[in-house]
Amino acid sequence: MSITQILPVHAPLAEAPTPAPQSRFAFLADWADGLGDWTLFSLQALRGIVSHHLKGRELLRVCVEVGVNSVWVVAVTGAFIGMVLAVQTYNQFHTVGLETSIGAIIHMSVVRELGPVLAAVMLAGRVGTAMAAQLATMRVTEQIDALACLGVDPVKYLVSPRFLACMLMIPLLTVLADIMGILGSTFICLNVFHIESFHYWKHTANFVKVFDIFNGVIKAMIFGGVLSLICCHRGFNSRAGAVGVGRAATEGFVMSFVAIMILDFLLAMFFNALHVIIWPMSGTRMA
Amino acid sequence: MADDAPLPAFADEPMIRLRGVSMRFGKHRVLENVHLDIHARETLAIIGESGCGKSVTLKLIVGLLKPTEGEVSFEGRSLAAMKEPELTAMRLRVGFLFQGAALFDSLDVYHNVAFGLRAKGGISTEAIRQKVRMRLQDVGLPLTVETKMPSELSGGMRKRLGLARALALDPDVMLYDEPTTGLDPIMTDVINDLILQTRKRQPVTSLIVTHEMRTVMKAADRVVMFYPLSRLNPGEPQVIYDGPSHGLTTCTDERVRQFVLGEARDRLGEIHGEFIPEH
């Protein structure tokens, strides 16, 4: 007697359920579903940071990839952004005789906004897309499944070090972008437009405070964490084939960029409110 | 359907059980209401056309995918009810040879095989080294490849390396996803022999997803054949054959016969040394 006859191997096939008609708002359900999945994915990555899965050597390798290898691109773009700002603002300020205030305006913009946003966008473009493509390739070639089969949590093993490396490295890159932006704008202001240096720096010292640098660095850390999680999530959920890998990388960058811009607005509001709470007499600051 | 030829004696309780399992990816249905029992020490081959859910079944068994409906259980314990540590412990008892070997391309051969042992923890470096060398020898890879990267290996060597990695943790269950796909006939025989040797060396339960009838005839005790849902009539079961491997050649089900004949002709028309004429 065969096993087929002993065991109820087959059961009658149920009628295939009729698919429900697509709601006009189905995209909202898909969006909420995706956001929920990303949140769970992020929580798992956060758990990985405090678990024994995090290997120091792997973290160091990713830190080098994220931080050291991004130095030159952040430095060059930071310097040129500072120079462009100086060129674009000089005429307006010169017209009303306030050219010595250019330094304060540019340096405030660089420290609070352009430094962190620039570093984050550069990181999303250079590192985020690489992360998404790398993880997508691992997904397509079943390496992520193989990790799970060998008793390793793929999110904790692959995502946690990348997330932590981005969080740790982006403040340094932001400070670098700030310094290069300030140097670039100062070079143009003092050497090309011949602005008087004493008042140029005095106005900067009066306006740009430690809180502004803190503001930029904290924003950058949040950008770095979010962009790494978005790019890794896209890579993990890649579709098959070269098209799937390419799409994962593109989606990773685009979604990171949009998230950075939205977060930037929200964090600017938050830090302004925080500033008013801490120093109520100073009034609302420029975001 | 299957004939009444006796099958090897297995334990009464199935080691792996699928009950009413359905799987959909979006609107695309892959599996529908599949029931399957796999007993300890049994070697079961799953055959069928591409896209009928064979590889998906393996991933459901090891918990890499969750069924849309139904239940998958391992030694009587539902995978859905398992917490993460329990699921990890279960996976450590299962070796998986992936279709493309799924080697970690950033690690060399030695570290690929050692990966599971190191992740498991509690094993000395020397013990890991010995185990890695033993497994490389088991699959016929020279120790000189230890420092090579996977990209430097041929297709057959990659498959053997994947097998060595899967066997490193001495699994109770081995899952083979298309182990001989893309290999030449000689290398196909080498891999088939490795599957048989693995079974002889340790009491392992094996599931082989394959198109290769030589693998089925050589290695499998029992065969189930899946049929694509798109070509089934409403109410028909997706598993259209469940029986001993030698029963395939005498099966009267036209769909099974077509598949076996087609596959046999594709591979020199040789099954059990007999040429199967075209009807």
Q: Describe it for me?
A:
The complex is a heterodimer of chains A (287) and B (279). Chain A is elongated and about 70 Å long. Chain A is 79% helix and 0% strand. Chain A is built from 10 helices and no strands. With 287 residues, chain A is mostly helical. With 279 residues, chain B is of the alpha/beta class. Chain B has 2 domains: 157 residues, Rossmann fold; 61 residues. Helices cover 33% and strands 23% of the residues of chain B. Chain B is built from 8 helices and 12 strands. In chain B, helix 6 links the parallel strand 7 and strand 8. In chain B, helix 4 packs across helix 5. The chains are: A mainly alpha (287), B alpha/beta (279).
Note the main attributes of this structure.
heterodimer; A: 287 residues; mainly alpha; 79% helix; elongated; disordered N terminus; B: 279 residues; alpha/beta; Rossmann fold; six-stranded mixed beta sheet; 8 helices; 23% strand; globular; disordered C terminus
Average pLDDT of chain B works out at 83
Could you name the ranges of chain A where pLDDT drops below 50 across 5 or more consecutive residues? 1-16
- What integer value in Å does the Rg of chain B equal? 19 Å
**Percent of residues in β-strands of chain B:** 15-25%
Shape of chain A: elongated
Strand order of the largest sheet of chain B: 6-7-8-3-9-10
Total tally of structural domains of chain A: 1
Helical content of chain B, roughly? 25-40%
* Number of helical elements of chain A: 10
**Main sheet characteristics of chain B:** 6 strands, mixed
Quaternary state reads heterodimer
Q: Tell me how many strands of chain A there are.
A: 0
Write the layout of secondary structure elements.
The complex is a heterodimer of chains A (287) and B (279).
Chain A: H1 3-6, H2 26-50, H3 56-66, H4 71-95, H5 102-140, H6 143-149, H7 154-192, H8 197-207, H9 210-236, H10 241-278
Chain B: E1 16-25, E2 28-38, E3 43-47, H1 54-61, E4 69-74, E5 77-78, H2 84-92, E6 94-97, H3 109-120, H4 125-138, H5 155-167, E7 173-177, H6 185-201, E8 205-209, H7 213-219, E9 222-226, E10 239-244, H8 254-266, E11 270-271, E12 274-275
Parallel strand pairs in B: 3-8, 3-9, 6-7, 7-8
Antiparallel strand pairs in B: 1-2, 1-4, 4-5, 9-10, 11-12
Helix pairs in contact in B: 3-4, 3-5, 4-5, 5-6, 6-7
